[in-house]
Amino acid sequence: MATKQQSGFRYYYHILGWILYFGLNYMLFNTYFIRFNLPLQLVMWVAVFIIFYVNYLVLIPFFLFKKRYVLYLAFLVIITGIILTLTYTIKMDMMPPPNFGDRLHQMPFHSPDITFGEHREPPGGPRMRGIYLDLYNMLMFIMAAIGIRFFEFWSTEEKHKAEQERAQAKTELSLLKQQVNPHFLFNSLNSIYSLAYRKSDLTAESILKLSDTLRYMLYDAEKHQISLKNELEHIRNYIELQKLRLTDLTDVQMNIQGIVNNKQIEPLLFIPFVENAFKFGADGIHESFIHIFFDIHNDSIEFRIINKVVNEHPNERYKGTSGIGLNNTRRRLEILYPEAHMLKTEKKDGLFEVQLILDLNKS
């Protein structure tokens, strides 16, 4: 079903089309030798107007679109025959048949290739030629109605398809974001568990920091876009939460270059990579490092994180969860930044590196 805006646009281009047709018709008749006869032209215009909209509004949607081809052709032939007969009858009552044969010699031809003496009156007589001309005009508008109707149908279908794809993508994004939250919570609770298991005095502080990060995820991260400044602060809080369970054996650094203010970004795009780095790159037993870099430009963000892999097989609490966050983020990037991002991961010589470049202008 067409919206009010689409219907209004349709009315406008119908009106414009008829104005162009009537105007060109008038200009063409006045260009040549035949004197423009307004009453006769009005009859023809009304005829093509009727055949166009009977076909456009009734026959095509109720028969052609529903693949009732035989009924469509039958009704089209009947209606065209009726209108053609009425048009011919009315025109014959209004004016006697014109003598086209005499007027052929009045044609303003200027081509040296044309010899006026060679012209002969076409077969069938002027009345039959008038019928042929009327039938030609009607057939032209029948084809125009079919073409316009099918174009509108195709355009509507494409818009409907695009709306369905947007709705599907929105639903998928919502589900993907919902998966990020429990995945984050799962990893954070494991960090707190390790503190509680050791009866660390930092357990209470870690729970407080977790509550801050959860508040961000429940409220700020539900928005379509958030400030880059808040997203980076969320990453810092997560890093501080993880540091509570680590020792000095893990070197964690976060470096930011560029202007952060006034930048907007989709939420929770970087945190899964940070989570992954802590999962596989920090166990508090082996020497390791996690280095995070943000290089912020006017219209793009380059994110890079590199960590030493010291924990190839996380304990049983992580079983079945490995890779969920990264795969989730890859899919979100495909939806949110199509052809506007570059994601590269590489594992080599005991190191794991992620590089992500976002084009902020195309988000």
From TrEMBL:
The chain crosses the membrane at residues 12-34, 40-63, 70-90, 131-151. GO terms for cellular component: membrane. InterPro entries: Bact_2-comp_sensor_kinase, HATPase_C_sf, Sig_transdc_His_kin_internal. Pfam families: His_kinase. Keywords: Kinase, Membrane, Transferase, Transmembrane, Transmembrane helix. Residues 172-248 form the Signal transduction histidine kinase internal region domain. SUPFAM superfamilies: ATPase domain of HSP90 chaperone/DNA topoisomerase II/histidine kinase. Gene3D superfamilies: Histidine kinase-like ATPase, C-terminal domain. This is Histidine kinase. It comes from Prolixibacter denitrificans.
